Amino acid sequence: MPKPVVDGNSPYTAINLIRIRFAITSPLTCHVLKFGQEIQPRQSRGLAFQRAVNDIRDLKARPTADELLELYALYKQGIQDPPFAFAQRPGAFDLLGQAKITAWKKVVDERLTAEQAQETYVVLVNSLKVKYGF
Fold first, then answer.
1. Radius of gyration of the chain measured on its C-alpha atoms
2. Backbone phi, psi, residue 56, to 5°
3. For residue 81, is pLDDT > 80?
4. For 131, which of 18, 46, 58, 71 is 20 to 30 Å away at the CA?
5. Residue 117: phi, psi to the nearest 5?
6. What is the per-residue pLDDT for 42?
7. Distance in angstroms (rounded) separating the CA atoms of residues 14 and 2
8. How many helices (H) and strands (E) does the chain have?
């Protein structure tokens, strides 16, 4: 896939905004690129995320509780259904639910977008595949 050409002729350079360019990668998708960013079609990111969601179930050993909480938080941030602000809060005695919400809030506080959370999730799953076997 050809990489986009980003030059200094952006009309927004004078007011010091992020340079963006539109690049059409297929007839159905259009992406906004930041300066120096490579094109990665949304479909391939989404497919990699779905593949990682399915692959995590096939690990030979169970990840640690901290790794599972991180996976949960990245997954919830990646799908945004429901968004964190509208998510139902667990009860006072639901300690696991409270741990999950706390982990998710940590990811939200890092200001990860859904796409960044999906990419981080895929990287984490790939590292867990190496660590625990697949």
1. 18
2. -65, -25
3. yes
4. 46
5. -65, -40
6. 53
7. 28
8. 4, 2
Residues 6 or more apart from 80 whose CB is under 8 A from it?
Answer: 114
By the 10 Å C-beta count (0-12 exposed, 13-18 middle, 19+ buried), 42 is classed as middle
What pLDDT digit, counting tens, does each position of 23-77 carry? 333 333 334 444 444 445 555 678 999 999 999 999 999 999 999 999 999 999 9
What percent of the chain is predicted at pLDDT more than 70? 67
Strand-pair partners of 20: 34
Q: Using CA atoms, how far apart are residues 85 and 37, in angstroms rounded to an integer?
A: 30
Is the pTM higher than 0.70? no
Residue written as token pair 């002729």: 9
Please give the angle made by the CA atoms of 100, 104 and 109, to the nearest 5 degrees.
145
